[in-house]
């Protein structure tokens, strides 16, 4: 029986981000509260009778097998597994079924039955968790390519909360202890690392799951990459990355209804002299142990870049969170750089 505090907490977290469209089935889930939500979990999702729902989070997710398809999901953490309740658009159905389950289908609208898809990653199969830069996302890795998922929370608080809850439930797992490490002398401990590159920070949980955090060198590599894209920069030491944020570029969809926008995921990087948009691979790096060849694309691919001195004005909308910003540059006529950012990335 969940506590009143847990019921209240998962009800508060059960809110779909307002700027993202989801299917009817996920809208139904988002409308559940407290006991109804827990009963839905046990009646439709849970695989074991005695498992407990501990945490709920809405997030965009990426799968290793489909790195270009970002889909909305309701992420449910229990004492046995992590469940990803996926948007209907992820279901690879034929054309007739796609039309039938389309939101505009009146029969589906009025029906109490909705189709959805659930991906399950058992905690016993979990091997490592990679946390992205500035806690904007994290990647969960299992034992194969089918068990690698990245959650694009775009929010450091949601990332931190989920990691803390995951560590708590992993502490409940009964796993055999790791073998005792072999004592190493000074030379074997430090002499084998001649690469000159520092390892990422690793925290090995008592359940033997690795939690891997980025180190300073990742920022240095990113600064070097940004420096290559900047004209006339000769001193890398003077380059400071002021802001790194996962955002959306707003593209107006032609030939559709008025005020219809398409959100394209982008990584926004701000330096003291330039503003960059990158297409970032959030799922392939660092390479999993079973990967036999590097990914087909680089981790960062430049999509757009403008000089701050060419920035003419910034337009801020009045809609609720998240905030939409329009950057107007005078170097390219009739072309605006539009971004969705959250206000908590700016200093007070």
From TrEMBL:
Task: Tell me which Pfam families the record gives.
Answer: PH_NISCH_C (PF25625), PH_PLEKHM2 (PF23142)
* Locations listed in the record: Cytoplasm
- Cite the entry's keywords alphabetically: Cytoplasm
For the keyword Cytoplasm, the answer is: yes
**Gene Ontology BP annotations:** Golgi organization; lysosome localization; regulation of protein localization
Ranges where the Nischarin C-terminal PH domain occurs: 241-347
GO function terms (MF aspect)? kinesin binding
Q: Name one GO cellular component term.
A: endosome membrane
Q: Name the source organism.
A: Cuculus canorus
Q: Which residues form a coiled coil?
A: none
Q: What is its main location?
A: cytoplasm
Could you tell me the superkingdom of the organism this chain comes from? Eukaryota
Q: Where is the PLEKHM2 PH domain?
A: 114-178
Q: What is the lineage of its organism?
A: Eukaryota, Metazoa, Chordata, Craniata, Vertebrata
| Protein known as | Nischarin
